[in-house]
Amino acid sequence: MTSTITTKLDLVILDCPDAPALARFYAQILGWQPEGDPDADFVVIAPPEGGISTENPNGRTCLGFQQIPDFVAPTWPGGAHPQQFHLDLSCSGQIEAVEPAVLAAGATVHEHQPAENGNFKVFLDPAGHPFCLIR
Predict the structure, then answer these.
(1) For the domain 72-135, what is the CATH code?
(2) Which CATH number fits domain 9-71: 3.30.870.10, 3.50.50.60, 3.30.720.120, 3.30.70.80?
(3) Cα–Cα distance for residue pair 43/98, rounded to 1 Å
(4) Which domain of life does this protein belong to (predicted)?
(5) What is the maximal distance between C-alpha atoms in the chain?
(6) How much is the pLDDT for 108?
(7) Is 127 exposed, middle or buried (0-12, 13-18, 19+ CB in 10 A)?
(8) What is the pLDDT of residue 53?
(9) Strand 130-134 relative to strand 87-90, pairing
């Protein structure tokens, strides 16, 4: 008989040059709150329900931001520092309706937009990480 290991995703951590600033950006666009010291070199943000997702009640849905002094922004779709992962953020409604708030928070539209049918749009966060708004 083989044993089963049960794990739960606790935290997704993004390296960045300024942890408090990037945490504020994602907190603003997600409507989440910081946990602990929001001005530390490592900041965690969680949904207002205290980090427990209604879709995943047995696990946390949190983002962490780790300050790295020699951070180099990822490049995508190619380059010396390719994207290693990205976040897909679903929109309630149309991407075009959400986009102004994301841009006002500090995101930029990526020059490369591979979606042929418009079901997602690629942005860069203030540290240069790609993320997508999806329908």
Answers:
(1) 3.10.180.10
(2) 3.30.720.120
(3) 25
(4) Bacteria
(5) 55
(6) 97
(7) buried
(8) 47
(9) parallel
Instruction: Tell me the residue type at 95.
Output: I
Residues of the chain with CATH 3.30.720.120: 9-71
Q: Please report how many Cα atoms fall inside a 13 Å half-sphere around the Cα of residue 88, on the Cβ side.
A: 5
Low-confidence ranges of the chain (pLDDT < 70): 1-3, 5-7, 50-60
3-state secondary structure 14-54: EEECCHHHHHHHHHHHHCCEEECCCCCCEEEEECCCCCECC
* Pairing assessment for the beta strands 130-134 and 120-124 based on DSSP bridges: antiparallel
Q: How far apart are CA 40 and CA 74, in angstroms?
A: 23
| pLDDT given at position 92 | 76
- The encoded tokens of residue 35 equal 């946990």
